[in-house]
Structure formats: structure tokens, C-alpha cells
Design a protein that fits this description.
- There is one protein chain.
- The protein contains 10 helices and 5 strands; from the N terminus they run ααααβαβααβααβαβ.
- By secondary structure, it is an alpha+beta fold.
- It has 2 domains: 79 residues; 162 residues, NADH Oxidase (3-Layer(aba) Sandwich), CATH 3.40.109.
- Strands 1, 2, 3, 4 and 5 form a 5-stranded antiparallel beta sheet that branches.
- Helix 2 runs antiparallel to helix 3, helix 5 packs antiparallel against helix 9 and helix 6 runs antiparallel to helix 7.
- Bound molecules: flavin mononucleotide.
- This is Nitroreductase.
Length: 319
């Protein structure tokens, strides 16, 4: 064998060995999914690929809208999202803020990626409105709705992490049954000449796809009062705040998925019927009902009061 042939062969063998060594050293791109549910921490399967795809698709859609439709500032975000959608299912961390970890934005700096995400959150906040005209068209599946609500239940905060909010999601026939019950309980309470109008209004809610019932359970709140007597007088308010945070998070999230929604208060007159039919503990306090469905109309025009100087005050700003 000539010297040239021998060194070529040596080079090849060395190359193959180096490639094998590198393959062993490369870490697997698998992120364990850990959802903290207080103590102890447990591992939980994440949103299935479909719903994750939906969330990512939605963020991409929002970013396009936020960029005025041309997407010029957000190209890399959209490319990153769609490349995730089309890649093999990979476990990701479940927290909303890490839906698209910055490492996926190969062409942007981490700072850029985070400001893009912030923009999409603000867009979702701005786009949440009250939609009264709703229909039975659902932009996502029932299992996606369930996962969305579960994520809200897991990650919306509560005072002292008391987790006092309880949600009951009524879909399809159960949603309709709820609004039929509302008509039933309203009938004896409504003047006869007003009842047709009332029934028509309630049937508008029935025409939607689903309703989320927001409850507060008294036990966690009572436990907090016993545990922290110094704050005892606050826990009632904080339980209401917690419940409202769940309402708001889901209102924004469902509308970000393409639903329209409106918030109603037929409590306490409906509590008993609902408790009987869906085996809901009577001591849970119903706080509100979020009706959601396909958008069959536009929200009304909204008047905004002055912000800076009347509703908003900033001190210590550098700019
Ligand atoms: C705490 C709270 C309670 C509300 N209660 C009702 C209600 O009982 N019925 C209703 O039709 N809308 C209700 N709304 C909707 C508001 O009227 C609506 O959010 C407001 O007019 C602003 O309009 P927008 O939701 O389109 O931004 C409620 C909203 C909030 C935040």
C-alpha cells in the first residue's frame, strides 16, 4: 500500500471514530415535563401535540396580526413556530411562558424572542371583548378545551396558594341544559310581560357552545383563616380575587383560541339546580358563568376613559 493510500485510510478510520464519539457525546434533545402542583412536584403529560400545535399556531397567528399582517418584524417567530409544528412530537415544558423556549428562535436573540411573546400576550388582552352573538362552531376540540381549562386551573395564582377556585365546564347538551334551567328558575321571578324578552336573552346564551362555571370552595379559605389569623379578614377578598383571575385568564385564553365569550351572573338563583344536576357540592359558591362559542357577530363599540393622569399613574420612569 502506498503512503498516500495508507494516510487516506488512516484519515477515514479516524473520521469514523470521531463521528461515533461525537454521537455518544451529543445530549438527547428531550426536556422532561414537570408541572409543580405545590408539594410534592409531580410529572404530568403535557398538552397533547394537537393542542400544543393549536396554541403555537395561535401565537403565530397573533404575531402576524400584531405586525399589521405583513409579519415583517416576526418572520423568525413564525418560522420557529411552524417548524415546531411540523417536527416530530417533542416534550416541552408546560408553563405558558415557555411555550416557545427562546432556544427555538435560532435567528433571534433571547431578548427579541421575549419581547415578541410579550407583544402577543398584549394582543390577546386587547382582543378579548364581550361577544353576545355566539353559535355552536368551536375552533378547537373538546379535549383541547379541557386541556386549556386545566392549564388555567394549574397556573392561575391564588392567595397563599390556597387553590380555592373550582371550575365546572359544560359543553354541548350540558351547556344547553344549564341555560334551560336558568329559564326555569327565572320564570317565577320575572313579570309575565317581560318573560318573553328574558327567555330570548337566555336562549342567546344557550345558542353558544359551552359555559364555564366559576366556584369558590369555602374550605381552603377557612383553613387559611385558621392558619393565619392575622390576615383572616382578608381571605374572603383574596378568594374573590383568585376567582376573578381564573375568569379573566380563561376569557382571554378562549378568545385567543378563536372563541367569542361573555360573562354572566345568574348566581345564586341557579346554584341549587346546577348542584343537583351535576353533583356539585352545595357549599361551593358560584361566582360567575363564562359563556363561549363561535363568533356570530361583532362586539359593541367600546369607550375608553383617559389613562395617564386619571386611571394610570407612573412615578420614577426614566423615559
Ligand atoms: C366583573 C365583571 C362582571 C361583569 N358582569 C357582566 C354581566 O353580568 N353580564 C354581562 O352581560 N356582562 C358582564 N360583564 C361584561 C362587561 O359589561 C364588559 O366587560 C365591559 O362592558 C367591557 O366590554 P368588553 O368586555 O367588550 O371589553 C362583566 C365584566 C366584568 C369584568
Amino acid at each position: 500500500m502506498s503512503i498516500a493510500a495508507r494516510s487516506l485510510l488512516t484519515g477515514l478510520v479516524f473520521g469514523v471514530l470521531l463521528a461515533l464519539l461525537l454521537q455518544q457525546l451529543t445530549p438527547h434533545i428531550q426536556v422532561p415535563v414537570q408541572i409543580s402542583r405545590g408539594t410534592p412536584t409531580s410529572t404530568t403529560p403535557l398538552l397533547d401535540t394537537d393542542s400544543m400545535a393549536q396554541v403555537l399556531r395561535n401565537i403565530a397567528r397573533k404575531v402576524v396580526r400584531g405586525a399589521g399582517g405583513n409579519g415583517s418584524n416576526y418572520k423568525s417567530t413564525i418560522a420557529a413556530s411552524s417548524s415546531i409544528l411540523h417536527s416530530k412530537p417533542t416534550p416541552l415544558t408546560s408553563s405558558a411562558s415557555s411555550l416557545i423556549p427562546s432556544k427555538f428562535f435560532s435567528t433571534t436573540s433571547p431578548t427579541m424572542a421575549s419581547s415578541q411573546l410579550t407583544k402577543s400576550v398584549i394582543e390577546a388582552i386587547k382582543e378579548r371583548r364581550t361577544y353576545y352573538q355566539l353559535n355552536k362552531e368551536a375552533p378547537i376540540s373538546d379535549s383541547n378545551i379541557k386541556e386549556l381549562v386545566e392549564q388555567a386551573v394549574l397556573h392561575v395564582p391564588s392567595s397563599f396558594n390556597s387553590q380555592s377556585t373550582r371550575l365546572v365546564v359544560l359543553l354541548n347538551k350540558d351547556h344547553e341544559q344549564f341555560w334551560d334551567y336558568v329559564v326555569d328558575v327565572l320564570k317565577p321571578l320575572t313579570p309575565e310581560d317581560k318573560f318573553d324578552g328574558t327567555k330570548q336573552k337566555i336562549n342567546g346564551f344557550k345558542a353558544a357552545y359551552g359555559t364555564v362555571l366559576f366556584y369558590e370552595a369555602p374550605e381552603p379559605v377557612e383553613n387559611l383563616r385558621k392558619q393565619f389569623p392575622l390576615y383572616a379578614h382578608h381571605f374572603g377578598d383574596w378568594s374573590e380575587h383568585t376567582n376573578a383571575m381564573h375568569q379573566y385568564a380563561l376569557w382571554v385564553a378562549l378568545e385567543a383560541e378563536g372563541f367569542g365569550a361573555n360573562l354572566q351572573h345568574y348566581n345564586p338563583i341557579i346554584d341549587q339546580k346546577a348542584a343537583e344536576h351535576w353533583s356539585i357540592p352545595l357549599e361551593w359558591k358560584l361566582r360567575s358563568q363564562l359563556v363561549f362559542g363561535g363568533r356570530a357577530g361583532q362586539p359593541g363599540e367600546k369607550q375608553f376613559q383617559k389613562t395617564f393622569g386619571e386611571r394610570l399613574f407612573v412615578h420614577g420612569s426614566k423615559e
